[in-house]
What does this fold into?
Amino acid sequence: MGSGIEDATLTVDELAARAGVTVRTIRFYGTRGLLPPPAIGPRRVGHYGPSHLSRLALIEELQHQGMTLAAIERYLEQLPDDLSAHDLAIHRALVASWAPDSAEEAGRGELERRAGRGLSEEDIERLVAMDVVQRAEEPDTYRVDPGLLRLGVQLLDVPIAHETILAARTVLVEHTRSAAHELTRLFRDEVWNPYRERESDPEHVAAMKSLSAHMQPLVVQALVTAFQRSLREELRAAFTAE
It folds into this structure.
């Protein structure tokens, strides 16, 4: 995943501040191959871009899911090299959707800090409509879903009618719920029930624990990859027909 110099505007200190990690952590991730190298600008100064920030957020979410660095390395190695910051944000939002409700309360200033930009009243209304944030009882206080905030903020600048975005969200929610239902049924019938019949087998128990620890991110990756491929094919067919 390359980051062109035209998009790489953050120094390592600025990237660390935006991502909420230390410079040492960024350099460590770089040595482990979790983070691509920066674009080298004038005076041999490294600069980072939106893709680096999105990848750091994805790493944070995978750690939140309990994955080890070694497991995260394997997960990231399977992702296409040319994923954009937007693609990575989608991955992170989907991975976060497996976690328990993690909404946190934040004031207006904290919400804007997390969003990385100022938010107008219209922006807030759109984020509320997308269910990215919810209004709390206290004035100017919101319940924020960290896994969806960055994606929601990006959608604020998409030149599509707000009603269209909400309609697309409804389609995605309905179809992903159906997919989740079928996958859960498949896992229950073909994996979990046979496991319960073999609980006395130590090797099988260990294998099931390993599968449980890694299944959710792997399923998310499979869903994203399949959806991206299907969407490309559908768009190509639709616009070719036009």
Observations:
- The chain has three domains: 12-84, 104-156, 162-241.
- The CA atoms of residues 1 and 83 lie 6 Å apart.
- The radius of gyration is 20 Å.
